[in-house]
Design brief:
The protein has helices at 16-43, 45-76, 82-92, 98-101, 103-107, 109-112, 135-166, 169-197, 210-235, 245-276, 279-287, 296-312, 315-318, 321-343, 356-375, 390-394. By secondary structure, the protein is an all-alpha fold. The protein has one domain (16-394).
């Protein structure tokens, strides 16, 4: 066993009774939510598929954000993030769950995607895209993408766990070697998945920036979730000395930076389409200005950017844990609003139509991801105790 097993008053292992209590709570939520989803499927199948797609896209994108950030930490040799990296890794470890949770998306292809309808072959635009947009290749591309993500996620997780026992720097080098091609593969395949799962809902429209837009939102959702998890563990008495105000300051910086990057990508996509003023491009935004959907524009502008930008800009606010915790939850909500705004106008073009299935789907998919995440913390250290940079991380101080 590596020599780092605890720091000061911190324990790097969850108490069995605490782990079981959270596991039981997540299992109860999962049971209730999946039963509600089953009822919703019987009552309103089309609403079920759209609500489920929003929830699936939320958690799939956040888990990809975790995979990306773990690879970034390895590629940059980051020391400040070592004590939070195991939580990132356990979020990344949920990626293979998509193999199971994408099944309802596959079952709803004909209910959700216009290109799957027989009349698409008679559409002068869609008929030219059906070599790519068809049920067979939609499923194959999705499974290939998930398989690649799972390969890199599980390999990096295994390398980190083996290093816990030996402390060998060779595992640090191995993680960096896997992360280099993994980052390229992630961006290519995640962009492809975003085109298939979300952008092809309206197959007459396209945007070459949509993949980055989707990934930027997922990164925001991941960082907000990571901060929330760190603070919840802190409130339970764990990692209070290992994840200090200095580390939360950097997590706040990342949340601020990713919020700004999301706004940059989102505005760039809108500006280029507005400037081009081509009917085949502008109709996507025009649909989202109809009825009560036009209220979502200000919600995203102010809620997803302006308010968090100016609030998280000062150094002191990024070190205020209560404020940081509030905005972690807030940005998780904003990421949901963003995906809802992208997906739901296809089903409800006249305006927002909130449905109880929206909440049930989010809780069902979220509890499944939560159970897999939490299972990774059972009798395993909460930090990478074998990482050679652990001492440097524990002494980290922002300049």
């Amino acid at each position: 066993m590596a020599r780092h097993t605890e720091h000061a008053s911190d324990s790097y292992f969850l108490k069995p009774e605490a782990w079981s209590a959270v596991r039981n709570s997540l299992a109860l939520v999962a049971l209730a939510a999946w039963l509600a989803l089953a009822a919703g499927y019987a009552l309103d199948r089309q609403q079920f598929h759209f609500s489920y797609l929003v929830a699936f896209a939320w958690f799939a994108s956040a888990s990809l954000g975790a995979l990306f950030f773990v690879m970034v930490q390895h590629l940059t040799g980051s020391a400040w993030s070592v004590t939070v990296r195991r939580l990132m890794e356990n979020m990344m470890r949920t990626v293979p769950l998509a193999f199971v949770l994408i099944v309802p998306v596959f079952l709803g292809i004909h209910s959700v995607y216009e290109w799957s309808h027989p009349e698409a072959a008679r559409d002068p635009v869609l008929s030219q895209k059906l070599g790519y947009l068809n049920e067979k290749w939609f499923i194959i591309r999705s499974l290939i993408a998930i398989a690649l993500w799972s390969l890199f996620a599980l390999r990096l997780y295994a390398i980190s766990r083996r290093q816990d026992d030996t402390g060998s720097i060779e595992y640090t080098k191995a993680a960096a070697k896997w992360s280099a091609p993994g980052t390229v593969a992630l961006f290519l395949t995640a962009s492809m998945a975003s085109f298939d799962w979300v952008m092809s809902l309206e197959p007459h429209w396209w945007s070459t920036m949509f993949g980055v837009y989707f990934l930027a939102g997922g990164a925001v959702g991941f960082m907000a979730t990571l901060i929330a998890v760190c603070l919840m563990l802190r409130s339970a008495g764990y990692l209070t000395q290992s994840i200090r105000e200095e580390h939360y300051h950097d997590l706040g910086k990342w949340l601020f930076a990713l919020t700004t990057f999301w706004a940059y990508v989102t505005f760039s996509q809108y500006m280029l389409i507005w400037y081009g003023n081509l009917p085949e491009e502008t109709f996507w935004y025009w649909k989202r200005f109809q009825g009560t959907w036009k209220a979502f524009g200000p919600i995203l502008v102010f809620g997803h950017f302006i308010i968090p930008f100016f609030t998280l800009l000062p150094r002191a606010n990024k070190r205020n844990l209560k404020l940081l915790g509030f905005f972690a939850g807030w940005m998780m909500l904003m990421h949901y609003c963003d995906l809802y705004w992208q997906i739901m106008p296809v089903l409800h073009p006249k305006g927002v139509a909130l449905h109880w299935l929206d909440l049930a789907a989010w809780l069902a998919v979220g509890s499944a991801y939560g159970l897999v995440f939490w299972a990774g913390l059972r009798e395993k250290p909460l930090v990478p105790v074998g990482d050679p940079r652990l001492e440097q991380c524990l002494a980290f101080h922002n300049v």
